[in-house]
Structures are given as C-alpha cells and as structure tokens.
Design brief:
Layout lengths: L1 H6 L1 H24 L2 H4 L9 H26 L5 H24 L3 H23 L3 H5 L2 H20 L1
Helix pairs in contact: 2-4, 2-5, 5-6, 6-8
Length: 159
C-alpha cells in the first residue's frame, strides 16, 4: 500500500490535466463555431490550432512540474498548500473556457485570466525553493497566460 501511495501521483496528475483539458475543450466547442465567430478579434489572434498545440504543451509541462514537486516536496512545509494551488489553477483554467465560450462574459473571462496568471506566478515562486526545474517548467504557461490575458482584454475592449 505504501508503494502505491508513493507513486500514485504519476497516475493522478496526468488524469487531472486530461480532465481539465477535456472540460476546457468541451466548453470551447460550445461557442467556437457560433458565438466566437461573431465577435471582433484583433488581427494577431492566433488560430485555434496554434492555441490547441500551445495548451497541450502547457498541460504536459505543468503535469511534469506537479509530479516533480510531489517527488521533492512531499512532507515539507506548505506541501498541501502548493498541491491546492495546482488544483485551483487547473480548475480556474477550465472555468475560463466556460465563462468565455458558454457564458459569453468577456470581461469576466479577462478577470479569470488575471487570476490564472496570478496563480501561475504564485506557483513558480512557491516551487522555486523545492525544485527550480519544476518552477521553470511553468515559464511557458506564464508567458502564454500573459499574452492570453492581454488578448482577452483587447477582445473585451473591441466588443
């Protein structure tokens, strides 16, 4: 039993990110072919295929970061706080797609993107002392979220 508990995160973390990705994709599909086509977007909005590829890479890197943290941080102070931050980040990430593509609330989606950005930045800072690699694996997520937050704000302003 101890063996299973020691390595279960190698199964649970990828399942969590697959579920988050599937939830986000499901919400996105509800508005991408109808409502999204009717809103004004800046010309530098990336095509959906690029966004899908970026999110796949980000989810893989984030899952690896999560697993590295569990391996290095187990039993240490703030372990469960950081686990909670990973979980909250994933949930608010999927919720962005719901707010934007299903609920059609662009300003709320922008605010949600700000929360995602804050949670990624907090994760990077919190992870640094446990695993620099785990922290740096989130750098592409922070960069993409910075751009996506800016893009959400511009889309809000245009609509």
């Amino acid at each position: 039993m101890k063996y299973i508990l020691k390595y279960i995160h190698y199964i649970l973390v990828p399942i969590f990110y697959i579920a988050i990705a599937k939830a986000g994709a499901s919400f996105t599909m509800q508005g991408i072919s109808s409502w999204y086509l009717t809103i004004t977007k800046p010309p530098y909005t990336p095509p959906g295929t690029v966004i899908s590829i970026l999110w796949t890479i980000i989810y893989i890197l984030t899952a690896i970061s999560f697993i590295l943290f569990v391996n290095k941080g187990r039993g240490k102070k703030y372990f469960w706080h950081i686990i909670g931050l990973f979980l909250v980040n994933g949930i608010i990430n999927a919720f962005w797609s719901y707010i934007f593509f299903v609920y059609h609330k662009i300003f709320l989606a922008f605010l949600n993107a700000v929360l995602i950005w804050i949670s990624v930045a907090l994760l990077m800072v919190a992870l640094w002392r446990h695993s620099i690699i785990a922290s740096l694996l989130l750098a592409p997520y922070l960069v993409w979220t910075s751009f996506a937050t800016y893009l959400a704000f511009i889309i809000y302003r245009l609509n």
